[in-house]
Structures are given as structure tokens and as C-alpha cells.
Design goal:
Length: 418
């Protein structure tokens, strides 16, 4: 059985199915079609409009004026009715189990702005802006590609590291937004003209959001000390690493404010783990797979703490994008992998270690007093050249802001400045 009503009005069309006069409606939904055409209103000639809508068994099939065809399942449409979200918090209040799995439209209409649906249950109607339907379309042709916004870099990035001045970052949300956008994209950026105070790193980082506390505290000082609990607190060379791989969730963005760097040596080194892993994935896919699929143990311990966690060295998101590297040879504990691939894993691990020492990936910065380097600790590896503490003071003060808070602040600022 097929019910059609064509162009009942000049500017909108209606699909109207009366279930009280239709027998075996649900059994024949795959046969039902209701197709309508819409003429654009003045000023909407260039808008993408609905040309046809066809009711199928579990979904509405929509053909758009640009030729794309999308499906919107009834359960998905009902779940995303605007009435199901709290008007203030925008959190979902609708209970999916308050309707049956067989809910379906009994009336559909669309014009140049909205698709309207009367539902078979609950005497309920929903309206969906056409722009919203296009934005959240999940059919293959229009489904949003969940690709990473990151741009990887190699050693030549040293000539174009994004930078801003601290007074402007503190006073202008627009400057903050553009600096954060660059930091999000590249994973490394600099702030200059930092005040020579212990509080400056905290004040600046809190322009983004609250700070991450670790077993080292909310802030930490990178300075050579007697009886250090971490290699960072010595004057020896510090190999490239990511911080706190032993934590359940390692810290996100690290802020390192240089208060003094007067000693001989002590340049900071950085490598974009994303670029290294992209090349590893292309050139040695089996090694990449081993490092991404199999966790190894990490551990930090001192008199007060013994913090351990297993992690893969490479983390992918659910769309296959490289989103994280956890690499710290000094915190790596005794590998406890299955014997069947222990040797192969070591070969993959050594491959990665060798690539991280390749000069084509590395940049070297001798920070000056008043400069602060900020980097994504879960992407960019950092290290340090050895320095001679007898030739002058080297003192950096640091803190962390986690990725979630960073991304949140960036999205909020983007609403105004993107």
C-alpha cells in the first residue's frame, strides 16, 4: 500500500498517513511512500532543501536538492527531539525506553526550514531544522569524518613555532584563542614576556582552566637538587620522554616557565611523537601494530608513592587516529608480555627508540628567562641537554592543564572568535 500527497501547499508539502484508516500499516511500511516537493522561499534559493521524503520500515529516507540521499532512523529522530533536552543545561532528559522500538511517523511535513513529524506514540510532535539534519547526517555520503585536527612537524618547525606575549594572552580572549588554536594544532607553542615570579606560570595556565595535581604537586620546579627523586631534578642529560606514563591518565598540556637559564648547556629538546608515529605506521606497520595493541608496565616509586599502570605505547582513538604516545624509558617497568611475541615487541620498541633519536625530527631550544614553552605531553616528547650547574642557575617552573579542560576552553572561545 502506498499513500502519496503531492504539494498541498506552495511552500511546503505534507505526508499524512492516518493509521486509523490503514490496515496492516506496520507490516507494510517498506511499501509505503509519501513523496512531496517544496519550492524555495525568497532568499533560500541557494539553500539545500528536501526534495523528497520516503518512509521506510525503520527510517525516513530523504533526498536533498543537491542530490544527496540520507536516512534518519525513527528511534534516532525521536531520541534527538529538542523537547527531550533540558532547556537550560541542554542535557538529555528523554528516556529511550518510554517509547517502543516500533515507534514511527504518522504524519510528516517539510518546508524550506524544518522537517516536522507527528509520532505514533505519546501524542507527540517533533521539529528538526534542515540545517541540523544536514549537520548531523550519518549516511555515508555526508557522515562527518572524525579526522584529527593535528598537523605533525619535523625539525624545520623550529623556524615557525607559534608564539604570543603573556600580557596580551592575559588581557585578550581573542589572542588566547588564536594561541590555543596553534597549540592544539601543533602541540607546541611559546609565550614570551612572562613576569619573573613564581605565580606567573599558574596565572597564565589558569587562563585556560584549572590545573592538574600530581604526586609532584600542583606546580613543580625543574632545578638541580641534592638527592633527587626524579632525573629532571639533576643536571644530567634528560632523554626524550613523555611525563608520568605511570599514571592512569597522564597529564595533558605542560607549561614550563623559564625563570633562569644561565648555565652552560641545558637546551630543551622536543620531538613531535605524531610525526614519528605517522612514519612508523607507513614504514613498519607491524611494529606500529605491536606498540599500539600490547600494553607494557610503567612505574614511579619513591618513599611516599608507588604508582603503576599498564599502557600501550601508542594510543589510537576509535576512528583510528593517532592521539597519544606514552614513552618514558626510565619509567618503563619490566616487560611482562607473552613469550610468543616478546622478541618481536622489543624489535618494534627499539625501532621507535631509534627514530626518536633521529635529528630530522628534533628541535632544540635554549629557553631564556621570561619565556615559557607549552606542549601537549601526550603527543610531544621533551628532553634536555646536560648542563653545568656551577656555571649559572637553570630554573624552570611548571604545571599541567589536562586535555579535556584545554579542549573545552578552546571550543567555548571558538564560538566567539573562530
Amino acid at each position: 500500500m502506498m499513500l502519496k500527497i503531492h504539494r498541498l501547499y506552495h511552500f511546503f508539502s505534507v505526508i499524512n498517513i492516518d493509521v486509523t484508516k490503514t490496515t496492516n500499516l506496520r507490516e507494510n511500511l517498506d511499501m509505503q511512500q509519501a513523496i512531496a516537493s517544496s519550492a524555495p522561499k525568497p532568499g533560500t534559493e541557494n539553500a539545500v532543501l528536501i526534495e523528497e521524503a520516503e518512509q521506510k520500515q525503520h527510517a525516513l529516507s530523504v533526498r536533498w536538492s543537491d542530490g544527496n540521499i540520507t536516512s534518519y532512523h525513527y528511534l534516532w529522530l525521536r531520541d534527538n527531539c529538542a523537547s527531550g533536552f533540558h532547556p537550560d543545561t541542554q542535557e538529555r532528559c528523554f528516556d529511550q525506553l518510554s517509547v517502543s522500538a516500533d515507534i514511527h511517523p504518522i504524519r510528516i511535513e517539510f518546508d524550506t526550514e524544518c522537517l516536522s513529524v507527528d509520532w505514533s506514540e505519546g501524542d507527540h510532535s517533533s521539529r528538526y531544522p534542515l540545517s541540523w539534519l544536514r549537520e548531523f547526517a550519518y549516511s555515508e555520503e555526508l557522515r562527518r569524518q572524525q579526522t584529527s585536527s593535528y598537523e605533525s612537524w619535523a625539525s624545520d618547525f623550529v623556524e615557525r613555532i607559534p608564539a604570543a606575549e603573556q600580557p596580551e594572552v592575559m588581557s585578550s580572549d581573542e589572542v588566547l584563542y588564536h594561541w590555543m588554536s596553534d597549540l592544539d594544532k601543533h602541540g607546541l607553542a611559546i609565550i614570551r614576556k612572562m613576569p619573573a615570579t613564581d605565580e606567573a606560570v599558574v596565572d597564565t595556565a589558569q587562563r585556560i582552566d584549572y590545573l592538574r595535581r600530581t604526586n609532584f604537586g600542583v606546580t613543580f620546579n625543574v632545578i638541580s637538587v641534592p638527592k633527587p627523586i626524579n632525573l629532571a631534578y639533576t643536571s644530567i642529560a634528560l632523554p626524550l620522554h613523555t611525563d608520568l606514563a605511570n599514571q592512569e591518565v597522564p597529564p595533558g598540556y605542560q607549561f614550563l616557565h623559564c625563570l633562569a637559564n644561565e648555565s652552560e648547556g641545558g637546551a630543551s629538546t622536543f620531538v613531535d611523537g605524531l610525526r614519528v608515529l605517522e612514519d612508523l605506521r607507513e614504514e613498519a606497520p607491524e611494529h606500529f601494530r605491536l606498540l599500539a595493541e600490547h600494553p607494557i608496565p610503567f612505574r614511579f616509586h619513591d618513599e611516599d608513592h608507588d604508582i603503576r599502570q599498564h599502557h600501550p605505547v601508542i594510543n589510537l582513538d576509535c576512528f583510528g587516529n593517532i592521539v597519544e604516545i606514552k614513552y618514558n624509558a626510565h619509567l618503563a617497568d619490566i616487560f611482562d608480555l607473552p613469550e610468543v611475541f616478546m622478541h618481536e615487541y622489543y624489535l618494534a620498541y627499539r625501532n621507535l627508540m631509534g627514530r626518536l633519536k633521529d635529528p630530522r625530527y628534533m628541535i632544540r631550544l635554549k629557553l631564556k628567562g621570561g619565556e615559557m614553552v607549552v606542549f601537549d605531553n601526550r603527543r610531544v616528547l621533551h628532553g634536555r641537554d646536560a648542563f653545568d650547574p656551577t656555571t649559572g642557575l637553570r630554573h624552570l617552573r611548571g604545571c599541567y592543564v589536562d586535555r579535556s579542560e584545554f579542549k573545552s576552553r578552546l571550543r567555548v572561545l571558538a564560538k566567539q572568535f573562530a
